[in-house]
Amino acid sequence: MPAGVTGGGVIPETDPGYRKVTTALELAQAIVAANKIDPGKTGRAYVIEIMNDLDLGWNEIGSAAQTLASTPFSKHANTPKLHPKLIASDVSNLQISPKKGGLTIFSANGATIRHSSWSIKATSNVIIRNLKFDELWEWDEDTKGDYDKNNWDFIVIGVGGGRVSHIWIDHCTFSNAYDGIIDTKGGTSNVTYSWNAYVGDDGVANAFNPTANLNSFVWQQINKLEENKDSYPLYSTLRNKMLLTPEQIVQVMQGTKKTMAIGELSKDVVNQMSSVTLHHNLYLNPVDRLPRSAGAQVHSYNNYADATNLLAAKRMRDAKFAAMSSADQAKFTSDNPYKFGPSLNGSISVEDGAMLVEKSVYIDVLWPLRNNQTNPADASYTGKILGLDLQYIFHNEDGTTYTERGDSTATGSRLGPFQDSRIKPFAWNTTHGGAPYTLPASAYDDPASLLPVIQAGVGAGRLTWAKENWLKVKY
């Protein structure tokens, strides 16, 4: 975690600053106590333990939570349109802004948060641990599959009311979201994401989820669209022109589309203030952004990305596309096209950002490292990115397997970046020109043996710990 992050500290359950919540109202009251009362004053909440799953849609939290004085809940600006469950629940926004910082929100049992986007603003020293975030996605017809209408992120850090720094998101699990899973904005600095699982939808079986869930959130949406499929132009084109079955559409939709963005507006100078560390995270069938960083400084190590199922889905989709008529193909290649198909991008540094990726694994990701995603002819959109001691495994269509272990600078490496061939030499953007911090060799796991390490502890609900351990920052 970033130096200086202590959250609410290690305090006993009997302390008045330790709040146990079982309902949306109790959560609202605890957040109010953290947001509005300065440290040291009576009633301040330092630790919030979420005891059970919480459905936090605007229509689910109840009028008492909606109308509570200084309630942290608000109705989300984007109202659900197509997913039947979200139409019933609606979506809320929960603002977390503790004055002068110092807050830990955790679950001892890996509780699930549904139908809510959390916004961390104008604060510092906040920890979120051992929670699952779920059910914040629906089919996109409005922007033709570009998912650029509903601004639903599970967590947004920064933007609005002041800078944010020293945030730790640890041992959480994230399913599909309409927009980003976690976005870091407004020059947020000293953020760490560790031991999180980005698992997408479980409607398709995979190595971490051996049994397909035929009532998954994506399946619920697909089944609803099937009731009147010709009413939805994109969906009906996929079914009637690309000749995809519902099962095949679910295969393509299984992954996380916009996993993580660092930096918001293009070429905004505030992006250069952002600094993020990512380690020991699992990305299961990710589509893009592991992360996508604009102008920021990012250190990524010991992360594991496995896109095996999604690569197979992409190849299936591409074969279906190739069999379409040229007129039908044009719907996907015009100036305002339908978008349906995973890009399979990995870690992306743009706009002169600096990203160092170490001892991580990429499986069946088409572009493990990228340095430009807007205009490769314009160097101002190009970032600096370097991979050291990475393992890359790619299953070719002919049944052979490509395997590489080494640095991205090695001759013949397929790690990338390849977008802007004028590779910017890697250098940190710190004032002193050196690394923002150093780690001992013992902090790193060997990528060749990383999978069992990840399997043993990544995500929410995987570890059975005493509650005190979730409050500690050193062990």
From TrEMBL:
Keywords carried by this UniProt record: Lyase
InterPro entries cross-referenced by the UniProt entry: Pec_lyase, Pectin_lyas_fold, Pectin_lyase_fold/virulence, PEL
Annotated ranges, domain Pectate lyase: 105-194, 253-311
SUPFAM superfamilies recorded: Pectin lyase-like
Name this polypeptide is given: Pectate lyase domain-containing protein
Pfam families: Pectate_lyase_4
